[in-house]
Amino acid sequence: MTLTQTASALDAGAIGRISDLLDEPDWLRTLRSTWWSRAETTPPPTGEEEEWRRTSLDALPRDVELLLDVPQLETEVPPDAVEAGVILTDLRTAVRDHPELVARYLGKADGPASHAHFWALAHAAWTGGLFCYVPRGVTVDGTLVARQMLPRADVAFHPISVVIAEEGSSVTLLEEVVSPDGAAGWYGGIADVQAGQGARVRYANLQQLGDGAWRIGAERVVVGQDAVVTTLNAEVGSRVTKLGLDVLMTGKGGTSKVLGLLAAGDDQQIDINTLQDLAADHTTSDLLYLSALYDRAHASFYGITNVRHGTKQTSSYQECRNLLLSPQAGAEPIPVLEIEANDILRCGHGATAGAIDPTTLFYAQSRGLDADAAQRMIVRGFFEQVVAKIEDETIRERILAALARRIGTTEDLS
Amino acid sequence: MALPNPALSQIPDSYKYGWHDAEQPRTTFEKGISAEVVAEISRIKDEPKWMTDLRLKAYRHFEARPMPKWGADLTGIDFQDIYYYVTGNTDGAAQSWDDVPDYIRRTYDKLGIPEAEKKYLAGVGGQYDSEVIYHNIREDLEKLGVIFMGTDQALKEHPDLFREHFGTVIPANDNKLAALNTAVWSGGSFIYVPKGVHVELPLQAYFRINTQNMGQFERTLIIADEGSSVHYVEGCTAPTYSTASLHSAVVEIIVKKGARVRYTTIQNWSSNVYNLVTKRAVAHEDAVMEWVDGNLGSKVTMKYPSIYLLGERAHGEVLSIAFAGDGQHQDAGGKIIHAAPNTTSLITSKSISRGTGRTSYRGLIKVYPGCERSKSTVRCDALILDDDARSDTYPYMEIDEENVTIGHEATVSKVGSEQLFYLMSRGLSESEASAMIVNGFIEPIVKELPMEYAVEMNRLIQLQMEGAVG
Questions:
Q1: Are B393 and A330 inside 8 Å of each other by CB?
Q2: Residues A350 and B408 sit within 8 Å (Cβ to Cβ)
Q3: Does residue A313 surpass a pLDDT of 70?
Q4: pTM score
Q5: In a designed cystine with B201, which of A93, A214, B122, B328 is the match (CB 3.0 to 4.6 A)?
Q6: Residue B441: band (very low, low, confident or very high) from pLDDT cuts 50, 70, 90
Q7: How confident is the model at residue B464 (pLDDT cuts 50, 70, 90)?
Q8: CA B326 vs CA A318, B237, B386, B464: distances in Å
Q9: CB under 8 Å to B120, separation ≥6 — which residues?
Q10: Mutation to test the B interface, candidates A325, A337, A343, most B Cβ within 10 Å
Q11: Across the interface, do B399 and A347 touch by the CB < 8 Å criterion?
């Protein structure tokens, strides 16, 4: 492919040329062009928005080249699942092989309001992504894995992950993205996860971008009636991460667990904004974000629990805990509640920030561990609150292995 | 806030301070604000040039700054439809109750102020619209060098002490409303407590807006010198008019080394008042600052008493209580800035919303780098009484130091039907039962009030709760 295009130079013509190059059907051309108009009419954040006060986009590398030669998405799908009609493939292949399905689900709704511009931009300028589809009533045993390796650091890439679990289905999916260290790049990946009535979905996103990467991401998770969804975002890499995550409890009786693990060091800045939208009766949504912050790393968390007017018997909790492991590390946890209903079962939040308790450290050292080993053990123990909630062994091991790059391992201690 | 007064029970209105006096002949400016109005206020008050200049500078900040876009809806405020200065024909603050003009004295008698002074207080001040109309302090305290007077009077009588501290905690350009206050301030209390002096009984000030479309912009400055202590209590009411009034005070407090200040507010403005107040204290080494902030009245309140912990081992506390009934929005909370090592703080917030009322807790805990071993706890509880009521919690935290212990927790609940059923089975009506549950909910804060205020607070809650459930 010969088109070289940068984000700052994108226009309607360039969006059309992406369709040309990828030889796309008309419906997709129209879809891209509609979203491009949206991106143009929905300007990028100015920094005055509450969700953008803690991350400046001034240094976002807008002039890197759009990645077109996307390496093959690596996928692991149990053989039984393929026979049952489960699809896990890159989005371009899905457009070719399952156009009706993709057309039914791709680009049908807005994402997090804070990231409206980037959501629209990805729908206009995506050149990769994944499509995961689990038909009605199908239970996938084992773990679906999709891994995207980026060939270079200095590129812009706006992939879309579409994850559809139909009514009564059950699936566990791990999505990983890895890119090289070095130059500045822009990773604008977004995810649209939909769990139908009674579906059970476990979706983990493991981010291991290179140390020059800007991850400006957005996720929309729709939890249908009586569905049970667990999401996990593990942020390990990147120079700057600004993730907007909406969990929409739209069906009665739905349940969600929203988990996050952050291990950041050097000059990393991780900024997450979340919305738990309790829009239906008898819904439950519990969020738990844990950060371990080394060196000069800074983590911000701005979460909103919105209990909608007229809803009954919802239950929700929001918790953000930060472990500060260096005098220069910083944290800004802001768990917001907006409650417009009276008949609530439970609604609360908690936030903490602080160093390792010196008595805990002293105790560990008194058992013969040196300070470094004691700290590793305590950080690992701190993360256990989330790790213990990851039922899937494959996901747990991959995430612990990735976190070990920052927090070390405790294997030598056993 | 009035003390219990049997005469009040004859006023049928559910907001019992909602009457107003027929307006008397007085100095009243035209509505609206301009540099000329600001200069004229200063001229009438016969102020030194530095104050006139400061007012005009503040007015330019006010003009230049946009209205806050966050928090409550302030679109109902028209700055050109407000009286910025209204005063009766009094000649300075009276020191004897008998010298206060009759029509003002009647108001304060109804509110029970002189009676309270005799019984429970070390000193009392009263402000009626723009001017302080009465100020008195016990003689023994005066002999010890305690100053308690109207802020305008202090500018004249203690110019050096005044100028040294005025505007140092809340500068003229701090925020739009503080800039407005600096431009047009009038009245308020000035308190100085000398080194080592403990004022055992509370000092009280009572603020009353009487004129329709009135803006009250009192300015309070409290200086507690090293090792001293003082408790200041303010109460506020206004008549119920159909158009809005604005109360935009600035309160600055300086708590020097080892001193202790408690500032208690019971805000019970009528439901047409926009109450937009900037309150901030600085606490030096080993000092203790406490805000006890009760918000029951007003249409909209935006108020976040702040404490800057500037010296080692300083301690700050905010106890915040908010009750929002139909059409009210209480956007309140507190801010603590840890700017020295070994500082500690506690914010406790209790909020209740009923009818279409909305309470928002908005708070900030900030820890600067190097403030090792700082500790802070924030605890917010909210009670939502009706289907259309709303409660929000916006707890900001900015932690830039590793060696700290910072925690925030909040719960939101409704009055349980089982609790109600139990109390009603003991013979209470539904509203009595609800009021009892609400009183239990706010108990941890009410017990910090002087007893007479605690009794009154419970009565006010009872009043707010009548017909609340059903």
A1: no
A2: yes
A3: yes
A4: 0.87
A5: B122
A6: confident
A7: low
A8: 29, 18, 10, 10
A9: B3, B201, B202, B450, B452
A10: A337
A11: no
